[in-house]
Amino acid sequence: MAPTEARPQPRRRADAERSIARIVAAARSSLSRDPDATVDEIALAAGVGRMTVYGHFRTRPELVEAALAEALRVGEETLSAVDLTGDPREALARLLASSWSLVSESSALLAAAEKVLPEGRVRELHGSAADRVEALLGRGQADGVFRTDLPMSWLVNVIQHVLHGAAEEVRAGRLAEHEVARVVTRTVLSMLTDRPAH
């Protein structure tokens, strides 16, 4: 009876998974620096040929989506560990402090995604983060500490814009990193607790 031949498939699969992880990491890094980074530039950063990239990702938008999804997955691990119990204002301050640095890293990546992915897809990928903020705002409204006169979707979007604005200010050198948490928190809380004029 002939000896059983070794089956190379599991090893090939493991090699492919490592290759994909390396490409996605390179895409995430490259696109975070330059939203217009090309597939050739990403392949060079990953240490593979462009055909290897296209062997795993058929198009650049597909690669951009994978990079954004990975950044959001890592961000979700960080944000899910934030203590959101207790006073909604204090909980929101903790969430904002953890969120801004993640936004800072991913804002250029998000810009790349917004150029090539449908708007609905970008929103879908951001679903968990938005849901977390919305749930916290809803609890604050129920407790009477957050305003209820503006649409919830608007409040969530304004908070996201404030975070992205802070990241841009830091990159432009107009805001020191150690000041961001205080500035963002005071801006958002003043917006959420402001009473409408009569």
UniProtKB/TrEMBL annotation:
<dbReference type="InterPro" id="IPR009057">
    <property type="entry name" value="Homeodomain-like_sf"/>
</dbReference>
<protein>
    <submittedName>
        <fullName>TetR family transcriptional regulator</fullName>
    </submittedName>
</protein>
<feature type="domain" description="HTH tetR-type">
    <location>
        <begin position="17"/>
        <end position="75"/>
    </location>
</feature>
<dbReference type="InterPro" id="IPR036271">
    <property type="entry name" value="Tet_transcr_reg_TetR-rel_C_sf"/>
</dbReference>
<dbReference type="InterPro" id="IPR050109">
    <property type="entry name" value="HTH-type_TetR-like_transc_reg"/>
</dbReference>
<feature type="DNA-binding region" description="H-T-H motif">
    <location>
        <begin position="38"/>
        <end position="57"/>
    </location>
</feature>
<dbReference type="Pfam" id="PF00440">
    <property type="entry name" value="TetR_N"/>
</dbReference>
<dbReference type="InterPro" id="IPR001647">
    <property type="entry name" value="HTH_TetR"/>
</dbReference>
<keyword id="KW-0238">DNA-binding</keyword>
